[in-house]
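Q: I have two molecules that I believe assemble together. Could you output structure tokens for the complex as a whole instead of separate predictions?
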Amino acid sequence: MSTHTLTWLLAIPLLGSVAVLAIPRSREGIIKKFSIGVMLVEFVVSLRLYWVDYSTPGYRLVEQVTWVESLGISYKLGVDGLSLWLVLLTTALTPIALYASWGSITTRIKEYAFSFLLLELGMLGAFVALDLFLFYVFWELMLVPMYLIIGVWGGKDRVYAAVKFFLYTFFGSLLMLVAILYIVAAYKELTGQYTFDLEKLTTLMLPAVPQYLLFSAFAVAFAIKVPMFPFHTWLPDAHVQAPTGGSVILAAVLLKLGIYGFIRFAMPLFPVASQVIGPTLAAFGVLGIIYGAYAAWVQRDLKKLVAYSSVSHMGFILLGLFAMNRNGVSGAILQMINHGVSTGALFLLVGVIYDRRHSRMLDDFGGLAKVMPWYATAFVIITMSSIGLPGTNGFVGEFMILGGAFFSRGAVGLGNNWFVMTLLAATGVIFAAVYMLHAVLRMFWGKVTHPENESLPDLNRREAWALIPLVALVFWIGLYPKFFLDKMNPSVDAFISDFSIRYRQSQGISKAQLADLKAIDPEESGSYVLARHAEEGR
Amino acid sequence: MHEDASQQLALLLIILFPLAGAVVNGLFGRRLPRSLVGFIGVGSVTVSFILSITAFAELFALRGEGVHEAVLTYQFYEWFSLKLPSGAEVAINVRFLMDSLSGVMTLIVTGVGGLIHLYSVGYMSDDDGYPRFFSYLNLFMASMLILVLGSSLPVMFVGWEGVGLCSYLLIGYWYENRDYASAGRKAFVANRVGDFGVLIGMFILVGVVGSFEFADINAAAAQGYFRKDFMMWPFGVVPSIATVACLFLFLGCTGKSAQIPLYVWLPDAMAGPTPVSALIHAATMVTAGVYLCCRLSPLFITSDVAMSVIAVTGTLTALLAATIAVTQREMKKILAYSTVSQLGFMFAAVGVGYFAAGFFHVFTHAFFKACLFLGAGSVMHAVHAHGDADIFKLGGLKKQLPTTRWTFLVSCLAIAGVPLTSGFFSKDEILLGATAQIFRSDDSLMVAVGWFTLIGLTLAAVMTAFYMFRLYFLTFTGEYRSAGESSDGHGYDAHPHESPASMKIPLIFLGLGAIFAGYLGMPHITPFVGTHLPSWWGHWMEASVAGHALPESMNTINIASGLALAAMAIGIGSAWVLYRNKSKDVLAEKVPARLYALVFDKWRVDELYDTVIIGPIKQVATLVGRIDMTFVDALLTRLPSFNAREVGRFLSRMQNGVVHTYGMVLVIGVVSVMAMFWTPRAHVEGALEGETLQLVAAPGFGYEYRWDGDSDGEFESGWSTKRIYAPTYGPEDVRKIFLYVRSPRTGASDHYSLTEQWTRLDLARLDAAWRRTQGSLPIVARLEDGKVQLRMNGAQVFGRTDTPDVIELPTGRGTGIENVLMVPRATVEATVEVRNAFGNVSTASREMTLPDGYLPEQHALLLDATKEGSR
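A: Yes, here they are, computed for all two components at once.
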């Protein structure tokens, strides 16, 4: 097992889903316990990834088996500091989401468990695949169970939402497929052999114009998934209609695949294009931060409010990513985890109240703090994490992202458009407080105005157990983020230096000149501390 | 900075005790007996206070041993790190530091905080949420102590936002009242606006300094690292980084410390329980902004612009809030505006460069304002007023509430600035600072700011004395105006009673502080008399806080003290005349009713903000919500689906089986195809095949080509089907000569057409080494005698001292000078004629650059040829 950890990670949910099919439909209790059990085993197995050394660049736990030799397709898996935490986030949150679902899903239990296990397989596969074809297979694979989860177990307009979700994502995927085929063809023309291997394909340096087109094709696929403004309109519909468990996975993991796609595929394959188009995407991210916040503020449906807050948060992550420095990229990855934890928890909390009242309209509530004090406490804690209060996880991520954007073009980055973007993004911190506290005010404070709310039960044991790990993570990441950052930073550094070397090579600068460039002129960029250290060194 | 290598665990414990109290009471408080909850709440803060005293004593001893910059530190762990563009890692450490400044602040927070916790045991005894209250209050203490003891900006920011959270929770403590909860939200959002400024300010500072530690920032500021001019979009050149950074930080201060324009949350914050108002919204949290300015005083003092902004903002706030306080009817409202006004005094002191004086006012204000709030709470407790107490329904309470009355009176005397009380000493120092600025500075702006501050603060001081004694007289003198009231909910309890001991003890301690705390900071020279006094405060603070030297001139000192005394006398005197033993608002009858109403309505600033800022934002949000559901969704979802459906419908209609339609489509198709092939397509490209230059024409069905390689009008080949042609070029074929300049570092590459006239090279696009040349004339190039000449015009390329004035570039290949590549190049023009099967002819020609070294030997000739003139 030690050498095939990643294959086991894919095999466990696959075998689990087959096994679920074998359990008789009437044994609901066993199906529920079994599927959770499989996911917990999966989580324990995935913990092994933490003890792998990621301090030097490169992929770990790599497995490669030729699949279709004539086309150069192989089954190639690997993990590094960029994907480590996303894998762990997936294996940790899927059981929580499924466990929470068992409180509210009452029909077709067997199919639900099957879909969830298949979904986990798809997501993990996409995070560990290092072959473009394999990645595409997993990318499409996870679309199907999610489509079913929304379309079968969703709300009133579930079919509309499911089809919209499917078509949007599928449209993007097709563009990506065309782009993948183009790169493979270009590689064949140059070297005479077919390959879908990411590591080989990244050695290819395409001319600028094809790069722009191909990057755009990838970017559309990933931007829809993120979702980046203005491709976000599928998200509120999908969230509102999806069952609680589906919403949690959708927000916590599925959206992350969009960003992950940029980091793993689009940016290394097309450095010139991402350098040129990246700032525009960051600007769209900033637009999304503000737009999402505004839209969230006026929602009357709590779930929609949380969905729009996702648009806002994902805008931060885009900004950090395309700042293209350590702070920004590490911050973006950390913020992906944070968003998974906080927004996942928010959707759980929305589910709690929906199960009790079958309504999510803010107008139907008020004064719940009196009736459900623990629920209110959990909600306020997660709210604070969502708006980035220092000490919670949200702060560290946002701080690093803003730091990344601020330092994107030099030490005192005041004279450029990145400074303006930083300023605008930082106003998102204000708006986050506005819309989230608006929701808290309408939900919890004031007197109980609706008699049917007077006797609502507080969190039950199942809900509490689903929330406790998330609340613990909120403070863990908030107070000791180094635990997470130390594992990812070397990979992020390698990612950035690879990227800039390749970008500069394409601009006709040799490696020798690059080394020369790195020798920093202390007067030009030196800060007080650097100068002091230099003095002390003398 | 002298670091004490030993870890001072006490600093961590000072924070952890209240934090543990908050956790225990928050999680288990509802199951614990009330007495234990109160014990945990008060006990944890008391332990914290004792630890603070021991730590402070150690610090004091160090100072006594002559260690001037003595600090105690505790390094807990590394939180996370940022990476600067220079590649340096900036670790953000959870590290606590106690120096002269934070030591005093810690004592204020734990000392006053402890007393207020004790007071709360009695005051909140009947409340249902007792454990929740103590949990929040302890959490506030922990956050405030993190704010004070944090040794770097991000750690301070944890406390900074933490106290904001606690303030939010405690203002909305009685959450069943929706207005109270709204007030909490208002406070949080106003603070967030300020926090945005702190966040940006932090990044600017770390960009310059390379560290988040206060000590490093201050040291860098002292060494002038912030004085650089720099470009800032869209303002152009901005005076100094310090100004920008300080203004962003000050935005944060206006939020936390309730200054214009963000002060509006503080009066509403009185919705919280009275101990909260005393602790958070008077004594500690709201002074955090002043604390931050003092913490970074070496930075602030480097920017005259930022300092002036602070002084003017502080003065305006002091004036505005004082006018409002004069008209209010409710005890806590008056005290709230008084707090805003006093905070304005503190910022004015900071703004004129007397940080220690500003912080001294923080210190004295903590005692008398906490005492006043707790006194108001005691009155409200006595008459069973909920929320706030209308002073026109009170009166004559000196008989029933003797302890409250005496402590309240003492505090009123202090805040009004009666000589020998604490407020006198601190306010006197502030006015002295403003006066000193007038006499010290040569800059007319600074002198104007000094005058403005001095006059504004004097007026505010008059009003302070006036409204405080208005409050005192209406509450404690005359007849009790609710005596005949029954408890039908409109009036107050007919029989007020003095509060229990747990409430009286804090009042007495704070009242004593209100009188005696000032003796720590006596003026260095007695006004009018001229005796030199030992000023312990100034001496103690100078280790941590920068600031201007105190003036020695007796005139300056006498003016300041004279004004302070006059203001106090006028204020108290007029209140005595107007309100002593009165029951009506006499002032309201003496000023125009509309003006009075306007002031009473707080100058309608809230309404102004609603109309000008909040309303439009809300409208935009509503609009965005609508646009998202209609326009964006329509464009990306409904329009494509509509298109797909309609195109499908149209195409299916085409297949309708009518032969006419099919025939017409056929004809249109044939005609279009023929039109496409009627004229040939001519296109030519050059390609290098080994050493030979080849011309390649675009292919086509039945095309024939003929070539004119040098475009001289004579075709060198006849019609043939060969679409590749390899001409040879000689010097006579050259059309143009240009200089190709490429700078790999900047990525710039330029072509300059060369003639015999000098052509100017654009240096701004070249390598940095070139840009640094200090030549008065630009670098130019021209053709001379068949060679390319570069004239440096006296400029020196960086790193070379021997740059000759005229450089002749070798012909035919590139020359690299300091990372810049220069190649003279020649162009030729090629033409192709294409004929198709219809006999139609098209022509294409293209100008091409000859490859470097194509004609190396003939290069000189080549240049000569061009010199003779072009065709």
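A: One point stands out. Chain B touches chain A through 73 residues (CB under 8 Å).
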